[in-house]
Amino acid sequence: MRVIELSIYPVKSTRPRGLDRARVERSGLAGDRRWAVVAPDGEPITARHCRALFTVTASSTPDGGLLLTAPGAPDLAVPQPEPAHTVPVGFMNLDRAAPGGDAAEAWLTATLGRPARLVWLADPAARAVPIDLGGQPGDVHHLGDTAPVHLVTLGSLRRLDDWIAETAVERGEELPEPLEVGRFRANVVIDGSPAFAEDDWKRLRVGAVDFRVMGPCGRCVMTTIDPRSRAGGKEPIRTLARHRRWDGWAWFGIQLVPETLGEIAVGDPVTVLP
After folding, report:
1. pTM of the model
2. Alpha-carbon distance 44 to 160, whole Å?
3. Superfamily, domain 1-32+124-274
4. pLDDT per residue over 133-144, tens digit each?
């Protein structure tokens, strides 16, 4: 098994940034989801309900800030916020974050068509991984939903494509195009494993970095939105719910917690550990 893709999302729910190499920190891949967009009351805004976020590209700058770009909008450089100044936010296990400033707020409000504020997680160790979702004391993560690192396998995606095609045939529907792996917004994509072999993995070594498997990833409606066209549909949730549903969720991919630190790269071998 080998790594075939690495991605980070500098701002949660915006476009991915593909990488050749990534630094693994306790809280996840460096630069991944340290920023997010929230409403004026601090509640997170994600592409689940604001698809315009899929048009936003965020790139880290050498000073620790961001460069925001979007079609039809001027580029905006956002400096790293002052960590001591915070505003209320409504993330699980996190109630305050540093605001990105008035210029970022105005830019996002105009680009998304709704009041929006940019916030930054100043301390990457400030947000605990929920214990009831597989975290252990000391596990921390950025502003992703529940875990530091998210991994999917190409073997499982191919099996899912087959299932979706079977569903379409049964229902007399036109055969869909294979799903892009980007729909699942994973940090790490690997190839070379049988479909859904990851259900039984407990620990992994990626390159020279070890990870503990927290468990599978419950999928939401966001996977039914094409990130390029922003069109919605029924798949893959319809078919996942048929083949991979338990405990009230449709499952695809796994969530990881780093056990050691270091660097991983596209092409690295992946080994299942005892």
Report:
1. 0.95
2. 30
3. PK beta-barrel domain-like (2.40.33.20)
4. 899 999 999 999
